[in-house]
Design brief:
The complex is a heterodimer of chains A (234) and B (249). Chain A has 234 residues and is of the alpha/beta class. Helices cover 36% and strands 26% of the residues of chain A. Chain A is built from eight helices and nine strands. In chain A, the strands form two sheets. Chain A has a six-stranded mixed beta sheet, sandwiched between helices. Chain A has a three-stranded antiparallel beta sheet with strand order 2-1-4, covered by helices on one side. With 249 residues, chain B is an all-alpha fold. Chain B is 81% helix and 0% strand. Chain B has ten helices and no strands. In chain B, helix 3 packs antiparallel against helix 4 (83-96), helix 5 (101-112) packs across helix 6 (117-140) and helix 8 packs parallel to helix 9 (200-207). The longest helix of chain B has 37 residues, at 157-193. Classes of the chains: A alpha/beta (234), B mainly alpha (249). The interface between A and B is medium-sized, with 25 and 19 residues.
């Protein structure tokens, strides 16, 4: 597998607080890597480093352009769903109608057809997160950085959207770095799970989920990975 | 509609009746306070005079607010974009509101004469402040996470401004504009006090020493109606511009 992104021995401090210490992560091309850890272990910092929003104090980050999907959907309330999804195309210089036309096929493939003209406030939390994911895909970058994408959703919607995301990634294969505090989410979606320690964040375990995607939460490989990750977190 | 209209109408009718009675029973000299019927008569008799002068004042208000809007928006964007400018200018902007117009007006007349320009400047000076403050607050309130998102979507500074910050600050800027419009009318009266030959404020100030109290009050009524119309016209524009919002807000 060719390597997409390499983070090598990265340390990042905020004042006296060490958020990340000597963190090394590789994401292969087309691979989904999950990073799990307790709150405040520097997970969001990690993604901002990968996306080039922050510079490391030491160590290196090398890789292709990455796009961030933040925990909150951050849809623009004055834009309709399809216009929100096609925001990156507008930034790329397309006129609004061209951007809509280009975004429409993917929007429909992701099962969002019929909601093109909905305002964000008219959509449920789950639907808003799907539109936010469509916006992330349409940025057309090789690496997706997902920051607890379903963290704010209720449990039922969350497992529903995990299945949806697995299907979407099967259709639109990308390299993904997924940050989450939900071990089950990591085990269902990722090929590999990295466990971060509490502050300062360090990689304390690395687990392969030994089964092809898509997987169900009840698959034995998923259950094994969950047990392994939970032990590493303890 | 009628259900919604009758409470304010009732208040107005009762208020006017009490006022009329107060003046007619000799509670106050009608040189000091004109009765509603005298004002109504003056409104009708002086209608063309009032309309001509309203036109002058309306132009002053319209262009004055326009200058205030442009200056206010530019200043708000400037002090939001450059921290140095915020620290340098913000205290001065607040201070500018404390300078009494009686001090400033003669200077403006000395510089710019008795034409419309000094009036526009006085109105603009009063009105730009709420526009700057509300727009600046609106720009400040833009979610920092949204700024980060726009950066990872490769938005440049101008694109981020046009696609996110400007629309995000629009509701606040419109609120500021509504305040500006409401105070612009009184600004016009103040401006006309210092060297003018027409306008509702001028008409009013001339009528009082001539003991034509009903005409002065008629001018006040026209100004109040004008302010109300402007305020609600802007409200309609606001609802159209912000039609994306849920019905409840």
């Amino acid at each position: 597998m060719t390597t997409s992104m390499t983070m090598e021995g990265v340390t990042r401090r905020f004042g006296a607080v060490v958020a990340l210490e000597d963190v090394t992560i590789r994401v292969g091309s087309g691979e989904v890597v999950a990073v799990v850890g307790p709150s405040g272990c520097g997970k969001s910092t990690l993604l901002e480093l990968v996306c080039g929003l922050l510079e490391p104090d030491s160590g290196t980050v090398e890789g292709p352009p990455a796009v961030l999907m933040p925990q909150r959907d951050l849809l623009l309330p004055w834009l309709r769903a399809l216009d929100n999804a096609s925001l990156a195309l507008r930034i790329g210089g397309l006129r609004p109608d061209e951007a809509r036309a280009r975004a429409r096929p993917l929007f429909e493939r992701l099962g969002l057809g019929g909601f093109e003209d909905a305002r964000p406030h008219e959509l449920s939390g789950g639907m808003r997160q799907r539109v936010a994911f469509a916006r992330t895909l349409l940025a057309a970058k090789p690496l997706l950085c997902l920051d607890e994408p379903f963290g704010a959703l209720d449990a039922l919607t969350r497992s529903d959207l995990q299945g949806w995301l697995a299907g979407a990634l099967a259709q639109e294969p990308r390299s993904v770095l997924l940050v989450t505090h939900d071990v089950e989410e990591a085990a269902v979606l990722a090929d590999r799970i990295l466990v971060l320690s509490p502050r300062p964040g360090r990689v304390v375990a690395e687990l392969e989920v030994g089964a092809p995607r898509p997987r169900a939460p009840t698959d034995s490989a998923v259950l094994d990975a969950r047990v392994g990750a939970m032990e590493a977190l303890r | 509609m009628i259900r919604r209209l009758w409470p304010p109408l009732l208040v107005v009718v009762v208020g006017l009746a009490a006022w009329q009675l107060y003046v007619e029973t000799g509670g106050v000299d009608d040189l000091v306070l004109a009765s509603p019927s005298q004002i109504a008569t003056a409104l009708w008799d002086d209608r063309s005079l009032l309309l001509d002068n309203l036109w002058v004042t309306a132009q002053e208000v319209g262009f004055g607010v326009l200058i205030a809007l442009v200056a206010g928006l530019v200043l708000a964007v400037a002090i939001d974009s450059f921290d140095v400018l915020r620290r340098a200018l913000y205290p001065l902007l607040v201070g500018s509101q404390a300078v009494p117009l009686v001090i400033l007006a003669p200077l403006l007349v000395y510089w710019f004469g008795f034409g419309i320009l000094p009036k526009l400047l006085i109105i603009a000076l009063i009105c730009f402040f709420p526009v700057v403050v509300t727009t600046f607050d609106g720009l400040r309130a833009v979610d920092p996470d949204l700024r980060k998102l726009m950066r990872t979507l490769d938005a440049g500074r101008w694109q981020a401004f046009r696609l996110t910050e400007l629309p995000a600050a629009l509701p606040a800027a419109l609120s500021g504009t509504r305040i500006a419009v409401a105070i612009a009318v009184i600004g016009a009266v103040l401006a006309e006090q210092s060297g003018s030959t027409s306008g509702l404020g001028h008409l009013m100030l001339q009528a009082i020493p001539n003991l034509d109290t009903p005409r002065a009050y008629a001018a006040v009524v026209v100004m109040a109606l004008f302010a109300i119309v402007l305020f609600y016209a802007l409200g309609v524009a606001e609802r159209r511009l912000l039609s994306y919002r849920p019905e409840s807000s």
